[in-house]
Each structure stands twice: as structure tokens, then as C-alpha cells.
Amino acid sequence: MAPQHILVTGGAGFIGSHVVDELVASGHQVRVLDCLHELAHGREPDYLNPAAEYRWADVRDQAATADALDGIDAVSHQAAMVGLGVDLADMPAYVSHNCLGTAVLLKSMAERGFRGRIVLAGSMVVYGEGRYFCPEHGLVTPLPRTGERLGRGEFEPPCPLCQRSLVAEEVPESAPPDPRNVYAASKLHQEHLCQIYARETGAGAIALRYHNVYGPRMPRDTPYAGVASIFRSALEAGRGPRVFEDGRQMRDFVAVADVATANRLALEASPAIDGAFNIASGTPRSVGDLAAELARATGGQAPEVTGEFRLGDVRHVFASTKRARQLLGFAAAANFSEAVAEFAIAALRDPATST
């Protein structure tokens, strides 16, 4: 495919900066729009790719965003406030950064007559709980887990019809969304806004539903950091990682280099390809597995399984990667143990604010 001029919003961040590196290495021209939000950055990062152009502004700034779109062929929309947050007081911030930010970007694209492709950094959190099979009732949607049940150590969601134990299965993109926290709701709304834009303008829109991404340049331990970063920060402080519930909750941990590759493939894909794609390793592992692998890689203390819980968390969610493999040609290449060992010693990013 001929080189494109691509705008990467949030291109100074954890995933965005790896997307920039991947696109530059593939011969594309890259412009970055990033506000260097204080929850993600203590300063301008030292890992920025010098071959890219940088504009330091908020995607919610209509004038700056419209200007950044000048001459752009495709958009990689990575800018977002991420993580489960602290409490409901975070709701306006998530809606503002994620929903309003996306709306301003799309409005600016419309005013410029943009008909290229937008690739959205989506998230597996839109699924809520994963896909579950009941031996009696088939596929079912569990009810939200209650504090009462979790407090008794009953972490597995039962069948809502017969209360029998369920079997967790891979979640396909066709699964109905069921966002169960503010961040998840904002990520689903981003998808809806991009779909509306594509339908109204004829532009292309792809949502890459990232599963649990880890790797170099993650922000250090904050309420907004991923679990891999939180575990590593504990090990660096000489403590064992604190693993919530019983540590057996299943996720799909995917290396950031693979996520960057998926973004390039989506941006370069045929115009006929659109919709949502799970971006994951295809090999689910437990949260306890990740903590233990990190402890081994660092020679640190063994994880502590605490039984603690957060009501916003789900029990199991891991992906079917069939659609991404068939239509995008995406298959994760990273070896889990090797990628975790690399992450264990990689440079992380210090946020400006600490909690």
C-alpha cells in the first residue's frame, strides 16, 4: 500500500507511541496530536519518535484538531482517559475526554470533508462479563456480581436462570455489549460515534477492541494504570503483587508491539473492511498467572492473593481472534514469558500526579 499521511491522536502515550513507531517504520508520514495529560505524563516523554511531527494540544480543542487534520489521509484515534478510575467522581472526566473528544474530532473531520479511514482504540471492556455457557440453558448473560456474593468469596457468576456453574468461553465481536463501568460506557459510545460518522459520510471506521495490553512505556502505578504496571510497581518496591479475588479471573494479555501491528494492518486494510475487531493474543491466562510470571522475571516476592474485589471488575473476559486473523491478517507474535520478562525491566513512565 502507498504511504499515507496519518494523524495519531494520543500518539505520545503508551500505546499511541508504539503505533507511531510502527507506522514510521512502515514508511508512513505521521503527525501526532497529544495534550500530555497529567495523569499520563510527568513531562514530554524521551521516547518520542523524531521522524513524526508533534502538536501539543487537546483533541477537544476544535481549532487545534481541525488544523492537525490538514493533509491527513487516515486517523488513528488513540487519545482517551483510560482505566477504571477511582469512583463516580471520575464520570465527567471520562465522558469529556473520551466522548466529547471523539465528537470534536469527528466534527473537525466532517468540516474538512474527510472520507478516509478512522481506526479507533476500542476496548474489550465494552463486553462487560465475557461469554458464558450453561449446561442447561446454553449461552446466558450473568447478572452483575453483587458485593454480598463477592464478600463471601463467591467470585464466579452463576447462571441467572438456574444458579448452576457456568463455563467461560471466547467472546466474539458479535457478542452484545454490556458496559459495566463509566470507562466501558465511554468506550462503547466512542464506537457508536465513529459508526455514525462512517454511515453519514462514507468514510471507513474500524474499532480495535484491545484486551489487556502491557509493555514498555506503561504509566507507573496510579489508579488509572493497567494491572501489569501495578504488579510491577509493587515488585519494584520490594512487595509481592496483591492479586484480587482468587487470582483465577481470566483475561487475554497482549503485548503492545502486537497492538501496534494491528493498528497498522487496520489502517492499511482494504476499504471494504470495517467494524469491530478483538485485538488479543488468543491465549487467555489468569491474573494470578501474570503476577507469578512477573515475580519470576524480576526475582521478586511471590504474589499475595487477597480476596479483595472491586464491584466494577468482571470475572472472565477473553477474546476470539478469528475475525482479526481472517480479515486483517493479524496474529499476535509475542511469546508471553519473553514479553513479560522484557516488560519487567523496561522503562515505565512517571505521571505528573500521584495518588
Largest sheet: 7 strands, parallel
Report, as a whole number of angstroms, the end-to-end distance: 46 Å
What's the helix-strand series?
A: EHEEHEHEEEHEHEEHEEEHEEHEHH
The poorly predicted ranges are none
Instruction: List the total number of helices.
Output: 10
Shape type:
globular
Strand order of the largest sheet: 3-2-1-4-5-9-14
Content-based structural category: alpha/beta
The whole-angstrom Rg is 20 Å
* Beta-strand residue fraction: 15-25%
Topology at a glance:
Blueprint: E1 5-9, H1 14-25, E2 29-34, E3 53-56, H2 62-68, E4 74-77, H3 91-111, E5 117-123, E6 131-134, E7 138-140, H4 147-151, E8 167-169, H5 182-201, E9 204-210, E10 212-214, H6 227-236, E11 242-243, E12 250-251, E13 253-255, H7 256-268, E14 275-279, E15 285-286, H8 287-298, E16 304-305, H9 322-328, H10 336-345
Parallel strand pairs: 1-2, 1-4, 2-3, 4-5, 5-9, 9-14, 10-13, 11-16
Antiparallel strand pairs: 6-7, 6-8, 12-15
Helix pairs in contact: 1-7, 2-3, 3-5, 6-8, 8-10
